Write a sequence for this structure.
């Protein structure tokens, strides 16, 4: 019965690097369990409020052994053994005879484990499955969009994002901003800085400003060769109380001035960067170059 859950092809452990924010964009974002936990909690809350934890069949077929297996899979995830967690969750799905809240929960954990493993195509498949066997929740579409964006499929990610926004017209569901950021990064990797620029501008206009968004917007401008615009985005990001990407913005500011030919200013900023954040191989390289100018 559960063949539509399963992937016939063998999983590939395509572990990708996290986005190098120092002006080397790639389509990888949200490599963080907190994001998935937040979305999973939001979905569970929605089910409780609606009184729908048993909306399909209930959990009468779930044995104590299966419950223990689920807890073991979660423990494996907590310990960083995502491959083992996926195998555990797959085993549980093989044992099920019909869809219930238990299987829905297992699928959510499996999608998270697949994502953290770096198997983004498999994660996207799992979130597509959740749309079919649970209901078309915006959160599932957004998680699918993040997964596809990380796999490099910008078009597929945009399609999932659009499906999510149809179910979430106010963009209030968990995962919207993360999906937009991931899509922007995917377009950056694909060389479409214009689309990336539009996405980051939309996020800021909709009130989803963050240092990560401004840094990515800054990098999109740098890729276009518009260093003055990039510096404007950087200044806006540094003005925020959010510190998460200020280090990257500071580095990229110095890079912008270097490309603008303002070598003394660039040298000053690289030295300031190392004073604040510690010695950095890339910054050392730039400083060594700039002192000869």
């Amino acid at each position: 019965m559960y063949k539509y859950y399963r992937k016939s092809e063998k999983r590939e452990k395509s572990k990708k690097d996290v986005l190098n924010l120092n002006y080397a964009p790639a389509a990888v974002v949200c490599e963080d369990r907190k994001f998935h936990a937040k979305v999973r909690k939001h979905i569970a809350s929605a089910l409780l409020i609606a009184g729908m934890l048993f909306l399909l069949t209930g959990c009468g077929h779930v044995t104590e052994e299966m419950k223990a297996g689920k807890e073991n899979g979660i423990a494996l995830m907590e310990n960083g053994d995502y491959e083992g967690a996926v195998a555990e969750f797959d085993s549980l799905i093989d044992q099920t005879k019909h869809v219930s809240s238990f299987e829905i929960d297992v699928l959510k954990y499996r999608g998270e484990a697949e994502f953290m493993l770096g198997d983004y195509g498999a994660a996207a498949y799992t979130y597509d499955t959740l749309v079919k066997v649970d209901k078309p929740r915006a959160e599932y579409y957004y998680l699918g969009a993040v997964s596809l964006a990380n796999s490099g499929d910008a078009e597929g990610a945009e399609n999932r994002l659009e499906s999510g926004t149809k179910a979430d017209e106010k963009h209030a569901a968990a995962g919207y901003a993360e999906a937009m950021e991931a899509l922007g990064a995917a377009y950056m990797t694909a060389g479409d800085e214009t689309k990336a620029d539009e996405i980051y501008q939309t996020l800021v206009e909709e009130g989803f400003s963050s240092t990560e968004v401004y840094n990515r917007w800054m990098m999109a401008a740098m890729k276009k060769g518009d260093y003055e615009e990039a510096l404007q985005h950087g200044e806006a990001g540094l003005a925020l109380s959010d510190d998460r990407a200020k280090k990257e913005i500071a580095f990229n500011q110095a890079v912008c001035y270097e490309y603008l030919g303002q070598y003394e200013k660039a040298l000053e900023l690289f030295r300031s960067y190392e004073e604040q954040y510690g010695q950095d191989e890339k910054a050392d390289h730039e400083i060594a170059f700039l002192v000869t100018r």
The radius of gyration is 22 Å. Confidence is low (pLDDT under 50) at residues 1-31, 45-58. The first helix runs from residue 33 to 50. Residues 27 and 185 are 5 Å apart (CA to CA).
